[in-house]
Design a protein that fits this description.
This protein is mainly β. The protein has 4 domains: 32 residues, no CATH class; 126 residues, Sandwich (Immunoglobulin-like), CATH 2.60.40; 46 residues, no CATH class; 133 residues. 3% of the residues lie in helices and 43% in strands. Strands 16, 17, 18, 19, 21, 22, 23, 24, 25 and 27 form a 10-stranded antiparallel sheet that branches. The protein has a 4-stranded mixed sheet with strand order 5-4-1-11, with no helix packed on it. Strands 8-7-9-10 form a 4-stranded antiparallel sheet, with no helix packed on it. A hairpin with a 2-residue loop joins strand 14 and strand 15. The radius of gyration is 31 Å and the shape is elongated.
Length: 355
């Protein structure tokens, strides 16, 4: 029959089947989720040996592995009590890498923990896990280093743990995440149009937007430490990674008179869409299009944009090459010439975690 579907209460002439063979079960169940240990590592720290399938050396080449449960190759497996595993000796002059795996074997009709032996080599490589539908399907728990001449065996965990289910929220994702597990990803669909579509993560450090989805957000930048504001100001920004912002800001002086600093301020600053982390200084770039030239400045001015080290910064501060003497280095930029347009942009670390 060309069409087969399962499982139903009764088999029928339309291709529906009531009985499911193990290969059919595997074909169906692997769609529910990938291989993983049935445990969510949501705590900040764990005591050694308390995690599922933890491994303890018993001396020599013998190891004990503790209880745990896992989903492998579409089948559920539980180790109810500790078992002992032996690593084969290595009498050669070259090291070897083995693996300890959970193997679903459809020929045997069971899931078991086994040691897979590698080949000695000058640059040993651990055996790759088998993933053969209808045959053997493996998930690696440990990579074992087996030194030459029967040296002491060491283990390195290669765990794949379960994670909280990704979920969506029509709005108020920030508040909803207060009730989610650590390790949760959520999506704010902004169905009320009050903010932006975004992806967020609840980490042990706290809630953080990992990226904005859809269009960039807009904001109106200000010229800090200035006597007046430019008539035209526009900006766009978005979260592009956890605590990481991309932005661009344009400020245009639409009149012929220059905009100057206020009082005795040394230089201008430009407001950022969200405060920058001040743990370390950060450097961005910008330019001023001063064509036709005003204020006895060049027609094109390169800007170095500094987010200083110190407290979280709401402003980026502007420097430019001394227009008269190159040897003078950078001066604080403190005059926006008439009819000039200034643009700054870049990527910076924000202060989402209030460090």
């Amino acid at each position: 029959m060309a069409e087969v579907s399962y499982p139903f209460n009764a088999s029928n002439a339309s291709g529906g089947q009531s009985q499911v063979q193990q290969t059919q079960w595997q074909s169906m169940s692997h769609m529910w989720g990938g291989d993983r240990i049935d445990f969510r590592a949501t705590a900040s720290t764990y005591v050694a040996g308390t995690l599922p399938f933890s491994l303890t050396s018993l001396g020599g080449r013998n190891f004990a592995i503790v209880a745990g449960s896992a989903w492998v190759g579409g089948f559920y497996y539980t180790l109810t009590s500790s078992i002992t595993l032996a690593i084969d000796p290595n009498l050669t002059a070259q090291a070897r890498k083995d693996t300890i795996v959970i193997r679903a074997d459809l020929t045997l009709g069971s899931v078991n923990i086994v040691v897979v032996k590698g080949q000695p080599s000058a640059s040993p490589v651990a055996p790759r896990p088998q993933r053969n539908p209808g045959g053997q399907w493996e998930m690696v728990l440990y990579e074992m280093t087996v030194p030459a001449n029967n040296g002491a065996v060491s283990a390195n965990g290669r765990f794949q743990y379960d994670m909280p289910t990704v979920f969506g929220s029509p709005w108020d994702l920030r508040e909803t995440m207060d009730y989610a597990e650590v390790g949760s990803f959520g999506y704010d669909m902004d169905s009320d149009g009050g903010d932006s579509q975004n992806e967020a993560f609840k980490s042990r450090d706290g809630y953080v937007i990992t990226r904005h989805l859809g269009k960039s957000r807009t904001y109106t930048p200000s010229l800090a430490q200035s006597a007046t504001q430019p008539a035209t100001r526009s900006g766009r920004w978005r979260w592009i990674a956890p605590n990481t912002v991309w932005f661009t800001a344009t400020l245009q002086n639409t009149v012929t008179s220059d905009i100057v600093r206020s009082g005795s301020n040394f230089q201008f600053g430009v407001s950022l869409p969200v405060p920058a982390n001040g743990k370390e200084a950060q450097i961005l770039t910008g330019y001023v299009n001063n064509n036709p030239p005003h204020a006895k400045l060049p027609n094109f001015i390169s800007l170095t944009v500094v987010l200083p080290k110190g407290n979280p910064n709401s402003n980026a501060f502007l420097w430019y090459p001394n227009p008269g003497t190159t040897a003078e280095g950078l001066d604080g930029f403190n005059i926006l010439p008439g009819l000039a347009t200034m643009t700054i942009s870049g990527v910076y670390e924000a202060n989402a975690f209030a460090e």
